[in-house]
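Give me the 3D structure for HAT C-terminal dimerisation domain-containing protein.
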Amino acid sequence: MARFKKVIDQAKVFTIFVYGHTRTLECLRYFTEGKEIISPGVTRFASTFLTLNSIQEKKDQLRKMVVHIRWDSLKDVKSKKGKDATAIILNPTFWKDVKLTLTVFEPLVKVLRLVDGDVKPSMGFIYGELLKAKREIKEAFGNNESRFKEVIAVIGKKMKERLDSPLHLIAYLLNPHYSYSNPSIFDEPTITEGFISCVETFYYHDENKQHQAANIDLKKFQNREGPFNKKFARTFENFDYNPASWWRLHGTEIPALQKMATRILSLTSSSSSCERSWSGFEGVHTKKRNRLTTVHLNKLVYIQFNSELINDKENIKSKKISDVLLSNDTTEAQGFLRENENDCALVVYRDEMEGIGIPWSVIGDAVGVEEQLELRRSARVRQLYEGEEFDSEEE
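Predicted structure for HAT C-terminal dimerisation domain-containing protein (395 residues):
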């Protein structure tokens, strides 16, 4: 989408320039007190969001930096790319677009954190949270269909036949966090069809169990009969609860549906955790030609992988949970390290230089940011790390 691509490309122009020169990087770290503005993520989308968020958090430091004599005295800053980088940071439109981009895509980032996390199975939450994300995105655009329809269309395309299967629909239905707070879910034809399809598959060739689960048990669950109506069953109101554990405790009077619900709600909705076993193999293979026997190798991977699981459980218990979207590998953040691949702000705020009260838009006009950015709009972005070196007498 052009609106978001523009602000992402501008952010990349700035980060590529800063990280491409020793002096500019030193200057950046001086003003940010040693903090980086690039945050590598597990995917390119995560890297983009985390880096934009990092830039937004350091907005004041970055704008003070580019108007400081320390920055202006650097030879590289006087180059065409240096002027572009300075103009981007001083351009108020850039910051408004960053704010809008973060506001729009934050709901999707929440979904990513949910599915990639290890705290609880995510199958019971993925469909409901995607619907919630779509509502929040519409609100971010002021419920103006002409603005949000393109984003919603992309999400719908990605969900179709992937995240709206009968399995996702029944998990959404059997999670009381959603179905009890919105009883109309029980009457939605698409969800009802998905439920029947799953019941027929789960209890294949057992018509008695199918009848029990679909015609008797579901009605008791819907009407909150028996244990479902007890006060301590209201734990479902807390988003952090585990729906599979909830069904094991409160679904004893409807065993047919209980068995099905606990099995489905115990599922994950992402394979990212499975990929960690490969990183275990990579950690053991410290040499290209490793003489370890297969048995010894498997034991080492088993120990290493289970040690990580134990550490994860301890962190969960102590609530020391790191951001699952962050990564130590910069592969997915390369776009912010090297060159490659309308004003719609929803928040009105006073955008002035601290201490003197001069609007940043006035400062931007004084240095000619619009003229500077206009010069580079038609230029194609070149590739770094292909033999081209930076010219800098200071370096």
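The chain has three domains: 2-104+330-376, 123-265, 276-317. Let me know if you want a second pass.
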